[in-house]
Design goal:
Jelly Rolls, 1 helix
Length: 226
């Protein structure tokens, strides 16, 4: 696999960046000033590489820390949420450990749902979908197993969404999901689980029968880091 600086610019996890040494920085220039309140990273090895992460923005004269240097515990998706900033240039800075590989880095403005979900939801971190192949001898003896691939999969469903909120926010979400992956942080204040993945069907809101309320769900195939 080749590594290059532009690898994390898109949603494809097989295109990756690997710095030659640490501390290293990877920068995103939006081209003009825009509001941003999160940085998310997926398909990386910062945990196994023992790295420390900083997220920064450029204020016109210097790079400013948005978070303190934070040790990354494992290779699952990382979601850093901070107060909204109007900036053009952003970057991540990696120190300590050995040089990792990083597949996806996103800076943007998070869509925050009006209310959380819990009942009936399978946490995606527990929803492994692993394709296995067993090897059987001519005599019917089991002689081994091969794991072909693993993904994560779950459905995120919301009820009683205000119809005006749906009309203001969901059309842009639908268009983004048609061509890009997404990060979902499920109840981040409680569990801290973050998943990066794709959906094969854009969410389609449905009237619930109650006045001015709608329901919606997203079925996500998530990237498995192990």
């Amino acid at each position: 696999m080749g590594y290059f600086a532009g690898g994390p610019d898109n949603s494809l996890t097989y295109e990756k960046w690997q710095p030659q040494s640490l501390g290293a920085t990877w920068e995103y220039d939006h081209g003009n000033v825009a509001e941003c309140d999160y940085c998310a990273i997926a398909a990386h090895t910062m945990g196994t590489s023992g790295n420390t992460l900083q997220v920064q923005y450029f204020d016109g004269s210097a790079w400013v820390d948005l978070i303190d240097a934070t040790a990354i515990a494992d290779d699952s998706a990382v979601f850093v949420f901070f107060g909204p900033q109007q900036r053009q240039r952003w970057r991540i800075r990696l120190t300590n450990g050995v040089a990792p590989v990083v597949g996806v880095v996103e800076f943007g403005k998070a869509l925050q749902m009006p209310h959380p979900i819990y009942s009936g939801h399978t946490p995606i971190a527990l929803a492994r979908r692993t394709v296995m192949r067993s090897n059987v001898s001519a005599m019917g003896e089991f002689i081994g197993f091969t794991k072909q691939r693993s993904t994560l999969g779950s459905t995120f469903a919301w009820q009683t969404l205000d119809a005006d909120w749906v009309r203001d926010n969901v059309p842009s979400l639908q268009k983004a999901l048609e061509s890009e992956g997404c990060f979902i942080a499920w109840r981040p204040d409680t569990f801290g689980e973050v998943t990066y993945g794709f959906t094969t069907q854009t969410p389609i809101p449905t009237n619930t029968g109650l006045v001015n309320l709608m329901s919606m769900e997203i079925s996500l195939t998530g990237y498995s880091h192990d």
